[in-house]
Amino acid sequence: MIETPRLDLLPLRVAHADEMAIVLADPALHTYIGGAPDPVETLRQRYQRMTAGSPDPAVSWLNWVIRLRADSCLTGTVQATVAERTAEIAWVVGTPWQGRGIATEAARGLVGWLARQPVDEVVAHIHPDHHASARVAAAAGLVRTADWHDGEIRWRLKP
Q1: What is the pTM of this model?
Q2: For the chain, which has fewer Cβ within 10 Å, the N-terminal or C-terminal residue?
């Protein structure tokens, strides 16, 4: 678990799928990443695969749900895929909790935790029109680069 002033980042479990299906139900969350909200059973199956870990032993899948401690509710997720000492991170916060600094606090907590791991670089890929995610990346210490990956801008931090 990773703790921040207001949040607990809890290791992802299949049992989180029921609550997370509600948290992630807004189609607007997929504006920049594509797709659509998953039904709870599909989310359970995805979480089962994710918690089983990467089939590649050289790659680690690290996934947490974000719990807002004061309300004792889940509000989103953060993740890191670590390969060759590079952590690629991502975050999503459900629509009802956006604009409250939760994504920023969770991303900072994750980046701080990664800085204490055998990681040489943290990266995120952000759609050029997703200004809120760009602000989260910057607040977590990542710097926008000139590099593009699948239509997204690469942000980087060398802890």
Answers
A1: 0.94
A2: N
